[in-house]
């Protein structure tokens, strides 16, 4: 049993931010009492801001090819054991139709940084989706590209872009990423997207090798300063055939704790319950909703194509869930699903 840090939590709730050292202490001395108090405050914010209305994103992985060689990612260029694929436009539209039929109105097009897709190919795909399906919102997570590409994709109908900073500490960024990537350039891409009018999603993995509590606090402060409209905080999960394959997974309890902290820091923000939460712990996404998240990511691609897109290893606790089962779990937890 520990002492509940009510003073720090109340201060965070009132001001939306803490001085860095106080934030570090709130993270370092995490205990069950403080965790529960944070969770209660996060839930109160969700109720007051109508954030118990949960949004579902249907994820479609376009490609498992990537030009980068990041140390943590199973899709890294050097991994000769991962199956590679590129979905055709017809396949993407098929999965969009499946999701749309079940009420999904937010489509996440995700993939490695695959330069085989021309700028105009992605633009055409986005435009086709928007024309064929009414009220569809498109979120992109396709890595770093040119400003011209971002503008063209926005004019075609994309409205949001996930561009996680991964680490706002330059040394840590270099430790986990491909040598051709830099933190400065990543931040430049984030600001370019923001200035163009995209809703920009930031985020990081919890528990990557060499990560410190001080660095985690810096991530929270960076996202607050950047004004992140969408946030993804997920556990690091070691992937086979990567330099980090033998490292420990990130702590799911800490991820849930951080989601509650972030809800106090960005009360109006969209916080993602990522699919990796399910790989790390049974019903991890539902637990993330209870901690303050309000977006649930689910796979629209299943079967052979879904198994090929493995950023992380398959886990015994991971279960394929149909959309109706996920929705029933969300409602059973006391939340409402946003209707299209």
Report what the structure shows.
The chain is of the alpha/beta class and 340 residues long. The chain has one domain: Alpha-Beta Barrel (TIM Barrel), CATH 3.20.20. It has helices at residues 6-15, 20-28, 32-48, 89-101, 119-132, 147-156, 170-176, 183-196, 213-226, 252-265, 275-280, 284-291, 303-308, 323-332; strands at residues 53-63, 106-111, 137-141, 158-162, 199-206, 230-235, 270-273, 295-299, 336-337. Helix 5 (119-132) links the parallel strand 2 and strand 3. Helix 2 packs across helix 9 and helix 3 (32-48) packs across helix 10 (252-265). Residues 311-321 have low confidence and may be disordered.
Please sum up the structure shown.
The chain has one domain: Alpha-Beta Barrel (TIM Barrel).
In the CATH hierarchy, what is the class?
A: Alpha Beta
Biggest sheet record: 8 strands, parallel, barrel
Read across the widest sheet, the strand sequence of neighbours is 1-2-3-4-5-6-7-8
* Number of E strands: 9
What is the strand and helix layout of this fold?
Elements: H1 6-15, H2 20-28, H3 32-48, E1 53-63, H4 89-101, E2 106-111, H5 119-132, E3 137-141, H6 147-156, E4 158-162, H7 170-176, H8 183-196, E5 199-206, H9 213-226, E6 230-235, H10 252-265, E7 270-273, H11 275-280, H12 284-291, E8 295-299, H13 303-308, H14 323-332, E9 336-337
Parallel strand pairs: 1-2, 1-8, 1-9, 2-3, 3-4, 4-5, 5-6, 6-7, 7-8
Q: What brief labels describe this structure?
A:
9 strands; alpha/beta; eight-stranded parallel β-barrel; 340 residues; single chain; TIM Barrel
């Amino acid at each position: 049993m520990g002492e509940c840090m009510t003073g720090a939590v109340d201060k965070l709730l009132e001001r939306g931010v803490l001085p860095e050292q106080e934030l570090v202490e709130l993270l370092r001395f995490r205990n069950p009492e403080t965790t529960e108090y944070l969770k209660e405050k996060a839930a109160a914010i969700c109720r007051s801001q109508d954030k118990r209305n949960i949004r579902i994103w249907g994820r479609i992985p376009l490609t498992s090819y990537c030009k980068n060689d990041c140390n943590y990612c199973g899709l890294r260029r050097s991994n000769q054991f991962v199956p590679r694929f590129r979905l055709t436009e017809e396949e993407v539209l098929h999965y969009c139709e499946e999701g749309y039929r079940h009420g999904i109105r937010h489509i996440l097009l995700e993939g490695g940084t695959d330069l085989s897709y021309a700028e105009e190919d992605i633009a055409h795909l986005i435009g086709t989706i928007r024309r064929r399906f009414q009220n569809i919102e498109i979120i992109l997570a396709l890595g770093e590209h040119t400003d011209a590409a971002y503008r063209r994709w926005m004019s075609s109908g994309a409205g949001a872009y996930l561009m996680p900073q991964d680490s706002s500490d330059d040394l840590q960024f270099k430790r986990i990423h491909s040598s051709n990537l830099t933190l400065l350039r990543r931040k430049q891409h984030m600001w370019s997207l923001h200035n163009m009018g995209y809703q920009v999603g930031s985020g990081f993995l919890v528990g990557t090798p060499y990560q410190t509590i001080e660095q985690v606090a810096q991530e929270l402060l960076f996202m607050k300063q950047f004004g992140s409209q969408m946030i993804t905080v997920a556990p690091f999960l070691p992937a086979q055939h990567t330099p980090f394959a033998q490292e420990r997974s990130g702590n799911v309890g800490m991820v849930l704790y951080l989601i509650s902290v972030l809800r106090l820091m960005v009360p109006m923000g969209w916080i993602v319950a990522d699919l990796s939460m399910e790989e790390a712990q049974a019903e991890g996404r539902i637990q993330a909703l209870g901690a303050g998240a309000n977006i649930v990511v689910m796979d629209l691609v299943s079967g052979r194509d879904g198994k090929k897109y493995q950023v992380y290893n398959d886990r015994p606790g991971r279960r394929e869930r149909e959309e109706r089962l996920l929705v029933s779990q969300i409602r059973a937890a006391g939340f409402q699903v946003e209707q299209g």
